[in-house]
Amino acid sequence: MDDRMAEERQMLREALDKGVGGRLGTYLRLSGPGWLQSALTLGGGSLAASLYMGVLGGYEMMWVQPLAMILGIIMLGCIGYVTLSTGKRPFAAINSHINPVLGWGWVLAVAAANIVWALPQYSLAFGVTSRNLLPGVFGDGGTLAQAAPDAGWLAGDGLAKLVFVLCVFAIAIFVTWSYDRGGLGIKIYETILKLTVAVIVACFVGVVVMITMRGSLDWGQILAGFVPNFALFERPVSGYDELLAALGPVGDPIREYWTNYIVSGQRDVMIAAAATAVGINMTFLFAYSMLQRGWTKEYRGLAMFDLSTGMFIPFLIATSCVVLASAVQFHLKAGDAHLVQGLEASGGSAADPAYQARVASITASVDKAVAARQAALPETGEASEAERLIASTLLTRNEADLAVSLEPLVGKVAANYLFGFGVVAMTLSTISLLMLVSGMVVCEMLGLPPGGWPHRFGTLLAGIGGMFGPFIWKGEAQAYLAIPTSVVGFMLLPLAYVAFWMLLNSESFMGAERPSGAKGLLGNVLVGIAATTATIGSAYMVWNKLGMIGIGVWLGFVLLALIVQFTRKSSPESSIPATEV
């Protein structure tokens, strides 16, 4: 191990004298943690956020994920610089040199985020299995539904959900615990997961190429969609202007209701997309994955290259193509539009029970949405056809619907299975990584090195916590659980960003490695923009979702950190030594 690391450090030192071409060649050979971050990012959460962003926003929200990823990479670059320059474990460093409230707030937020983000992974995996892969076993009316008791929490699809989450949990435990031992089996499993995820991403790219060749994409509008438009946090995308105008003039109660409904959905989807680009648990994983690989300050340039190539480029291509494919299929289209198109294309019959059941489900969802509006504005009377139309365009598509995005490339049957297998692979990969990070967090809080039984038991926090996802979320679309959970994750993000920004400028911790001069100023400006954006965004969502109570808790945490900062006495290093791993 020591010989290999010494050889790598020598290669990096020599690469500095080889020019850009030689440096890139060396960096390509040694890259690693950035791809690990990419595996965590390109999971069920980012897939669901991208799909629903296309459904709701069309091309107008293309800017959200790249901007969030750029800000996230700036912050991860800061984390990499701090960690590699010192070789110290960040948790102990934050506690000792910055503020223990921030340190403990960070690791507890990471632990909570691992559980929160595991919920939609189980939920999404169950959704595609019950609707796309094995509906005859796990779906409504399937084998397990028929074997379920008539009453109790196992009734209906309860037994199917229980069997499914236990199977996924068993696989996740086997995979995660195998990381402590290594071995050929885990390498084969990881390779299969990566290839499956790569195939589904490639298919979405193929869909975009195909619909481009058909002339169905307006690349002028698409490119315009990459220009940030923060007004979308307060107004609907322009595509809804005509549908809203049909409801009445500006100021009409019904029009205002649906306007606010659309804007609320846009906020959630945009924040979810931003949160899944770089989550708070990734700030932990990146720091400790570099330390475990034995990287030192010679690797700082490699770390930024690793993030830019292994993380940003695959993420940008994958998420953009998913948004485009989803937008073409679903944006501004009534909920049953693709069903009619599919029926005509396949020459099927409208009397088909599955077709009728889905149409009935869509009708019931529209009725429910309209009934909610009528309950909010009882004096407005019955809903018009224009109102039912806009409600049908805003339906939350389920997993069977979302698989339609791949139909232009591979056909209906193959799209169902390909989407299903791809999503299950993504979710299994993400669950395994979330469990790994959960175990690392527990070890760090206990002051123990990662590995062994403490790490294994720590992985169970995320593994078991996530199992409740399919039971908690009662909506028809299991994939949509990724949206509200990601919003929660985004609210926690400033804990990491602010803590590492302060650590970057801590003279007692960084010493001679603290950034200075023009480069230091530029780095601080960029990190400051990232941290400030995350903080403002977090406060904005706390206010919108939790109101004064949420803001009170948020400000209470800030006040506690300030009190500790100004009252604690000078003390030696934390009881958890900030030493090399």
Descriptive report:
- α14 crosses α25 and α22 crosses α23.
- Helices cover 75% and strands 0% of the residues.
- The chain has two domains: 478 residues, Amino acid/polyamine transporter I (Up-down Bundle); 43 residues.
Q: How many distinct folded domains? A: 2
Q: What is the CATH C-level name of the largest domain? A: Mainly Alpha
% residues in beta strands: under 5%
Structural class: mainly alpha
The secondary-structure element order is HHHHHHHHHHHHHHHHHHHHHHHHHHH
| Gyration radius from CA atoms, angstroms | 25 Å
In round numbers, the mean pLDDT is: 80
Q: What is the terminal separation in angstroms?
A: 14 Å
CATH A-level architecture of the largest domain: Up-down Bundle
Number of strands: 0
Helical content (DSSP H or I, runs of 4+):
over 70%
- Please count the helical segments: 27
CATH superfamily of the largest domain: Amino acid/polyamine transporter I
**Major sheet attributes:** none
Task: Please tell me what the overall shape is.
Answer: globular
In the CATH scheme, what's the topology name of the largest domain? Amino acid/polyamine transporter I
Uncertain spans, ≥5 residues at pLDDT below 50? Answer: 570-581
